[in-house]
Amino acid sequence: MNDDVVKESTLLFFSLWNTALCYNPSTLLPYTSQWMADPQEEMTLTATHLLVLLTHYQPPLSDNDLPKNRFRLYLSQLSRPTDLQLVFDYIANMLGNAVDAHNTILPGSQRMIDFQDEIVSLFWQTFEICPNFRQHAFNNNIDRLFSPLLFIFQLHAKDPTRYYFEQLCAYIFLSLSQYRAFAMALNRPYTSKLPVPMAFYGETNADFLICLFHKLIASDRGVLKPITNILLTVLQNISPYIKRLNVHTASRLVNMFQQYSRVSYLYSQSSHWQNVDALLVMFNNLIQYQYHGNVTLIYAILTKRSSFLQLNKKAKVDVLISMTKQVHARRREKNPSLPETPAFLPSAEWLSSWKPRLPLRTIVDMIQYFSPRIDTETKKGTLSTESDLMEFIQQDTLVGVIPTPPQLLVRTFSSSSIHRFLTVYYWSLIYMRNVDSTPLFDTSKIHLFEIHEGSSS
Q1: Of 30, 135, 144, 227, which sits 20 to 30 A from 317 (CA to CA)?
Q2: Which residues contact 339 (CB under 8 A, 6 or more apart)?
């Protein structure tokens, strides 16, 4: 690549960033957006589109193993603290616009920008490509990025047309959860006061994250079902570092486990056991790595111990098949359009492929250790309240009772699969943004889906 091309690509990269960085919707006067358009917003949108596309493209490595895409190289090499802070503030302000628009004293005085998808995409690109930005975000205040993203995620959780945006947000949460610095930041007091329709009695950011995920999953009508396991994996990744859970948060986690371990759910599809597995790993991490800070969880597990002990029992395939058919028959009475037979029936081979590997030993050993001791103390009258029970657990230890903690395993995504998803998502987003305005595409050459004619027979 000659020097002129390198120089021009450098100028283009920083010009696009400068165009985007100049825009801040929070500086507009109240109700301004109701009666006049902002030309800077359109310029920012175009600059963001270009930055996302230019930094997303990944060509094969050249002979000297340097990436041919210089825009990714420039982004990866951002290092000046002033530049990193500018980018951090810009993304934080743009994401925060959604919170501000729903949290104003004057109703409708601030409009939520129309291109949250692009800002979230730019956040993803910058966070994944630029290690200096990633470290700067953790050192600065990652909550300024994470909290508004969480708010935007819940804002669209019931809209089927926003599924791919929700999937992108879930991937960002999963990426964040890989880092110890992020998990440790969740132990800070919750101060964001996001305007979400949820009763919250927790104390920390971790409490809020878990309670919100619980609410979204429990109230889901199918939009989040394909990414539920990603959300549970996020909780699984952060669990070794969560120092203390509120009693309400611990109760919601155990309630979620009860729902997923119900026979009517657990054995109705081949992949449902994965949700139970993720929660069990999370419980084990909280017990083994943060025992004294999470007696609330241990107490919640002990009060619902029958669910865990039942799951630990050997299941009989013929009984499961009969129960699955009965559950399906009851559902079919309410919805006659369902097929006559269940789409999935348990088998001995399927059951043996996962049930013996469920990480139940830690919890079962803990239950078997505490249950008789608590029963004895209760009969003596020394444990009469919830506080007495938790104090009793707090003063004990499980050293020598439960297995030694295994090496921590961080779960993440396949880079090849996420790249394919992003390519489709980015281009679909940009196409739909411009199909009725700037003629960037020859719409006659764009095929969003194919139609196959059936045979006459």
Answers
A1: 227
A2: none
Contact indicator for 202, 248 with CB cutoff of 8 Å: yes
Q: Is 335 exposed, middle or buried (0-12, 13-18, 19+ CB in 10 A)?
A: exposed
Q: Are 33 and 23 in contact (CB under 8 A)?
A: no
The pair of structure tokens assigned to 208 is: 């809020």
Q: Closest Cα partner for 370 from 338, 407, 396?
A: 396
- Do 179 and 142 contact (CB within 8 A), yes or no? no
Rounded CA gap, 394 and 298, in Å? 10
pTM of the model: 0.91
Phi/psi at 189 (5° precision): -60, 140
| Cβ atoms < 10 Å from Cβ of 32 | 15
3-state secondary structure of 450: coil
Q: Are 297 and 254 in contact (CB under 8 A)?
A: yes
* 41 CA to centre of own chain: 29
Closest CA to 104 of 18, 177, 34: 34
Tens of pLDDT, residues 188-235: 999 988 999 998 988 999 999 999 999 999 999 999 999 999 999 999
In this structure, are residues 145 and 84 in contact, taking their beta carbons and an 8 Å threshold? no
Contact in structure between 99 and 45 (CB atoms under 8 Å): no
Dump pLDDT digits (tens) for 65-115.
665 789 999 999 999 999 999 999 999 999 999 998 888 765 655 678 889
Structure tokens at 180: 């110890």
Both structure tokens of 286: 């909280």
How many Å apart are CA 332 and CA 340, to the nearest integer? 8
441-444-447-452 Cα dihedral, nearest 10 degrees: 180
For residues 438, 439, 441, 443, the Cα torsion angle rounded to the nearest 10 degrees is 120
Q: Compute the distance between CA of residue 190 and CA of residue 245 in angstroms, rounded to an integer.
A: 12
Residue 423: strand, helix, or coil: helix
C-alpha to C-alpha distance for 194 and 165, rounded to whole angstroms: 20
First CA to last CA distance, the chain:
59
Q: Which of 249, 239, 246, 234 is nearest to 282 (CA)?
A: 239
d(CA 405, CA 408) in angstroms, rounded, equals: 8
CB 89 within 8 A of CB 158: no
Distance of CA 42 to the CA centre of its chain: 30
